[in-house]
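Changelog note: in this version the structure field was regenerated for every chain. One regenerated record is shown below for reference.
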Amino acid sequence: MTRSKTNIQYRTLGQHQPIKNKQVTRDERIELVVEKTRKIYPKALRLVCYTDPDTGKKYEFITNNMKLAASTIAGIYKSRWQIETFFRWIKQNLKIKSFLGTSQNAVLTQIWVAMCYYLLLVYIKFQTKYSHSLQELTRMIASVIMEQRLLIDILSLKEQSLKKVREPVAQLTLF
């Protein structure tokens, strides 16, 4: 299933099913006309036109599924879009660029750990009334993670004074 493009060229073969849902404006069987795409998709496809009741926006979906109701196809695409939006949020906020494992357990574990970290950051920011962004808070914590300092003390420091805190202590040399 995919959204149809505005420049798609197709021929209508007939109506797929009688329309029962008010949001579904068309449910047609189509075939692609352009030779190149016709080789890739030689069988009849289905074009479902749907109007979102919340926004009034019109969507056209193309699918090869001839069994599901048109409203179900629109619902599946909406759910798929919510999943895409969720993963974009994960990449932006949880800083997960790629998954370390491919099993369901590995992916879920990595997401849960990242969400716990994110929620802890938000909680710390709220409790301490930290005025800077979460990204700034993340950088600050990462820069002093191995030092024994109170988090409250670190959050009260400015960027310039944090650099002084990070300066290494002079090592003693053995002769």
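Spot check on this record: The mean pLDDT is 80. The two ends are 73 Å apart (CA to CA).
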